[in-house]
TrEMBL record:
EC number: 3.1.3.-
Source superkingdom: Bacteria
Keyword annotations of the record: Glycolysis, Hydrolase, Isomerase
UniProt keyword Nucleotide-binding present: no
Gene Ontology molecular-function annotations: hydrolase activity
Keyword Hydrolase on entry: yes
Native source species: Pseudoflavonifractor intestinihominis
Protein name: Histidine phosphatase family protein
PANTHER family (UniProt xref): BROAD-SPECIFICITY PHOSPHATASE YOR283W-RELATED, HISTIDINE PHOSPHATASE FAMILY PROTEIN-RELATED
Amino acid sequence: MRIILARHGETGWNAVGRVQGASDTELNEKGRSQAEELGRRLAESGEKIDICYASPKRRAFETAEIVCRHLGLTPIPVDDLREVSFGEWEGYTWPEIEEKWPEEYEAYQEDRMKVAPPGGESLGDALRRILPVLDAIAAGPGETALAVCHSAVIRAVLGWRAGVPFDNKALYRFNVPNAQWVAVDWDRTAQNR
């Protein structure tokens, strides 16, 4: 199964650099325009997308609805595609987090796989819910699926597949801007956990 992981369009919090995580923010006007463009690009890409899944967070699900109008599909909400929870850090910018929680921030930057923000989840926690969902998508109908989700979800999956250390430097290699996508070939029987 080919799975296209697409990030939602811009929100007001994205525009000012605030961490969103489990917070249910909505698209801004730029984000809606980005979603329209994403839908057009996917429709013109030559990819025959058979089915669309989306995080139920408003920013992702609205992006999926806009994109799916271009693809003739209806998005299916999947709770475990939701963004990684950043707990107490949500609503703050990264510089504010570093200033307010210096020790926790440093530990998180060194090992995001094992270290969670206060009241949040580590990327290891998130992957334990995300990878089985991608396995289920890969076992589902069609040959190509679209999954509209979030930045940390996509980074975690790409980092895990590449086998990189889950620190700040390695994961930023996998930056996916708003309303952009990356396609992965997913064979659930070949995944090693």
